[in-house]
Design brief:
By secondary structure, the protein is α/β, with parallel strands linked by helices. The chain has 12 helices and 17 strands. It has helices spanning 2-15, 40-58, 69-81, 97-107, 152-156, 164-176, 202-210, 231-238, 255-260, 267-280, 299-312, 339-362, and strands spanning 29-34, 63-68, 87-89, 111-113, 134-138, 140-141, 160-161, 181-185, 217-221, 245-247, 285-292, 316-321, 368-376, 384-389, 394-398, 413-421, 425-433. The strands form 5 sheets. A 5-stranded mixed barrel has the order 13-14-15-17-16. The protein has a 4-stranded parallel sheet with strand order 1-2-3-4, with helices on both faces. Strand 13 (368-376) and strand 14 (384-389) form a beta hairpin. Helix 11 runs parallel beside helix 12 (339-362). The longest helix has 24 residues, at 339-362. The two termini are 32 Å apart. The model has no long low-confidence stretch (mean pLDDT 95). The chain binds S-adenosyl-L-homocysteine and iron/sulfur cluster. Iron/sulfur cluster is lined by residues 143, 145-147, 150, 152-153, 187-188, 224.
């Protein structure tokens, strides 16, 4: 979501005549777009601000802007501890960035706007997509779920859905610019449209997106298990474009902890969804987010998470150490877990998942899979490219020998044969470019 906000900010700056530089020494404006889901970012901001201060000492005209969730949450501290900051903007201000910058340029007075209750409107806001063939498309903002550990509902405000027509128009525009893949973004896509009458549901939106000619792949994140409609599985199965990948955050395998997290589902409900997916789309990949060391998590609770991982056999998982965030309910809970215990649990879980991922990936040897080629190999190996499968796995492959320039493959859908794999990557050989 933050990357997408940055794309809107960059788009507006470009429309004002600015150009992106990654060298702060050359910049007229330095922008830190921040996330505060986990605590480490906070410390980074203060150290980066120190570097910016040095540049500002030489060039006082340099405009320094902090925006995003951390700005929303920490504005008072930033004003006190980083007095030279020129603008502090909350995440909901990404869409009015140009207007606010112009206001600052006119008055040259510190501007602090962190209002997450403004209506959600992205219509006509310039955007600079950061990737040439795949793009994020925001379908919702905010969150109403108040999981007890999470800052998002406080920083991004209440849930609101974008009008379907606007979403479809953005996707059609992307097709016109040769985009192949889109990722529909929302904190809880399953509740798309739930908060206003006359709004399409998520399933209706997917059906409409699936009908757009020219887009090859459609993905979405994130599905909250409590709102996951089992009909969604059928929609994925029947639509050609929606990829067979479901990201379904588990957070914990213990009912007791799920309750304390206010996740509003239990393991039985979670398994019901998993079983339906496995039955209806056996080749679908399933990935998750999980946390270790939530306050009061016992060894028994953690073992339940390990057991859930063994039972479910995820393709991959984002594993997090629970991080205490101010203002969240769980920061007030007793029995905070020692960092050493959290780290030890994290490594056990990562190690388990690494073994599961490796076994699952290796079992794909011999299969022919479709890859959307993203770029040349990151290791710079001649004639080697990488891309992702429909199931969102990274695949590296060697293109045809004998041809010196295979760069035409970038942005194409190709078939490759899997030869080998490890926990994180599939290795294959090029077969052909996919024809329609
Ligand atoms: N809306 C998404 C998640 C957004 S935050 C959902 O509900 O799935 C992305 C992930 O960060 C969460 O799934 C969670 O695993 C992790 N996370 C959120 N708050 C956290 C915290 N306080 N400590 C550690 N991890 C956290
Ligand atoms: Fe945070 Fe829960 Fe909302 Fe996800 S659903 S953003 S974890 S409050």
């Amino acid at each position: 979501m933050n990357v997408n906000d940055s794309e809107f900010i960059e788009g507006q700056l470009e429309a004002m005549g600015y150009k992106l530089t990654k060298d702060m020494n050359l910049a007229d404006i330095v922008i830190l777009n921040t996330c505060c889901v986990r605590k480490q970012v906070e410390e980074k901001i203060y150290s980066t601000a120190g570097i910016i201060q040095q540049i500002k000492n030489i060039r006082p005209d340099l405009i320094f802007i902090i925006c995003g969730c951390l700005a929303q949450k920490e504005k008072e501290n930033f004003i006190k501890r980083i007095p030279m900051v020129d603008m502090i903007l909350g995440p909901s201000q990404a869409s009015s960035f140009a207007m606010l910058l112009n206001e600052y340029l006119e008055k040259r007075e510190k501007l602090v706007v962190c209002n997450n209750k403004i209506p959600f409107n992205l219509k006509g806001i310039p955007i600079k997509y950061s990737h040439p063939i795949k793009a994020y498309v925001q379908i919702m903002k905010g969150c109403n779920n108040f999981c007890s550990y999470c800052v998002v509902p406080y920083t991004r405000g209440p849930e609101e859905s974008r009008p379907t027509e606007e979403i479809l128009a953005e996707i059609r525009h992307l097709v016109d610019h040769h985009y192949k893949e889109i990722l529909l973004l929302g904190q809880n896509v399953n509740s798309f449209g739930n908060h206003s009458a006359n709004h399409d549901s998520f399933l209706t939106l997917l059906n409409k997106v699936n009908k757009i000619e020219g887009i090859e792949r459609v993905r979405f994140i994130t599905s909250h298990p409590k709102d996951f409609h089992l009909d969604l599985i059928q929609v994925i199965k029947e639509s050609k474009k929606i990829c067979e990948h479901i990201h379904l955050p588990l957070q914990s395998g213990s009912d007791r902890i799920l309750k304390k997290m206010n996740r509003q589902y239990d393991m039985q409900q979670y398994y019901t969804i998993i079983n339906h997916i496995r039955k209806q789309i056996p080749d679908a990949s399933i990935t998750t987010d999980v946390m270790v060391g939530f306050p009061g998590e016992t060894e028994g609770d953690f073992e339940r998470t390990m057991q859930a991982f063994k039972n479910i056999q995820y393709d991959s998982a984002y594993t997090f150490i629970y991080s205490n965030r101010e203002n969240t309910l769980s920061s007030l809970f007793n029995n905070q877990i020692d960092l050493s215990v959290k780290k030890q649990r994290l490594w056990r879980l990562i190690d388990l998942q690494r073994r599961i991922s490796a076994i699952k990936n290796k079992a794909m040897a011999g299969q022919i899979v479709e890859i959307l080629v993203e770029d040349k190999s990151k290791k710079g190996i001649d004639n080697q490219f990488w891309g992702k499968t429909r199931t969102n796995k990274v695949a590296v492959f060697n293109a045809e020998n004998g041809s010196s320039d295979n760069d035409y493959l970038i942005g194409q859908l190709v078939n490759i044969k899997i030869i080998d794999a490890d926990a994180y990557t599939l290795f294959g050989e090029f077969i052909n470019v996919k024809t329609k």
